[in-house]
């Protein structure tokens, strides 16, 4: 089963970027959690100490002060108002700090620019009002928050740098491995990847890929051996046929019609032998260095038409127009290319076919369903061996092959030299 394909936009992000984002996101979460915990702990400790201090003040007041006498006391950071229930003395007015607050009450309030921690407690003997000025605590808390914010920013900058350097350190060997694989070029003996990676996973990738290359080389060698054997087996009957025709022609007892037929058979044998040699070169990817000839295009066109006339009923279906006089290239390859292109067009349509041959390009127009597009890499039910040979020739000679559907129907094939 093929591996699932990701959408293109999800395939563009590099592994380095993904690792960096993951490290940075994790670091942000850690910094935020630590900051929240520190704030909560600081507030908890602060209010625990203040509440304990207020409790001590209340206990001291209940044990040391006359419970029937009102009391109003103002210190540097502490305000106390004691209001007994059965007092014989008129109490002083309630301090402004406690005005409007319910009884009982415990909490933090602001009066002007100052912040107070208020405790209003009800006892059977009296109501006790205590206010502690915690403005200094709030100032220190603000300074603590600013310091914590600065430290958090520094930590985020440090974690960003850490995530970047570590993501590069982690993905660097993988990028190096990808570059080495990308630089590998097809050859009879392909260079192997280094396997001395410290990372176990990269070592396994390199060794597996090298094993794959070894298997591919063995497969190619088997294919080449089979191709060589097949070509040898084909050459033998061709040599027998051509040798027999030469003997018949040497005897001189053939009438003109038989002599013409024998000549055609002999020429076909020679062409078949040349085609086999060229196919071998194509399979070995060394056809680019083939011999270059100066070819008369009109003669080549007539030769191709004559060869195809023995296999197809051409009538007026095939029109070959030569737009240049000569071209310099490998004759066998060019003829093989033209025959396969025209033959494939003849097989796919019963309509007319127009062929234009020049020294810079070849154009083939048909009016049927034409050639399949895109060309496949190998023989198929729709393209056949002919199109595969055309593709191999164009790749070997670095010729450009274009297939364009025509608006009026059919297909146009361009081969640019």
Question: Could you outline the blueprint of secondary structure elements for this entry?
Answer:
Elements: H1 8-11, H2 15-64, E1 71-74, E2 78-84, E3 105-111, E4 114-122, E5 126-133, H3 135-182, H4 200-251, H5 256-283, E6 293-296, H6 297-309, E7 318-322, E8 326-329, H7 331-348, E9 353-357, E10 361-366, H8 384-397, E11 400-405, E12 411-416
Helix pairs in contact: 2-3, 4-5, 7-8
What do these coordinates show?
This protein has 417 residues and is an alpha+beta fold. It has three domains: 16-85 and 99-155, no CATH class; 188-288, Orthogonal Bundle (Helix Hairpins), CATH 1.10.287; 290-416, Heat Shock Protein 90 (2-Layer Sandwich), CATH 3.30.565. It is built from eight helices and twelve strands. Helix 2 (15-64) packs antiparallel against helix 3, helix 4 packs antiparallel against helix 5 (256-283) and helix 7 packs antiparallel against helix 8 (384-397). The longest helix has 52 residues, at 200-251. 15% of the residues are buried. Mean pLDDT is 80; it is low at 373-382.
Measured on Cα atoms, how large is the radius of gyration?
A: 48 Å
Given helix and strand content, the structural type is alpha+beta
Mean pLDDT over all positions = 80
Helix content: 40-55%
Categorize the overall geometry. rod-shaped
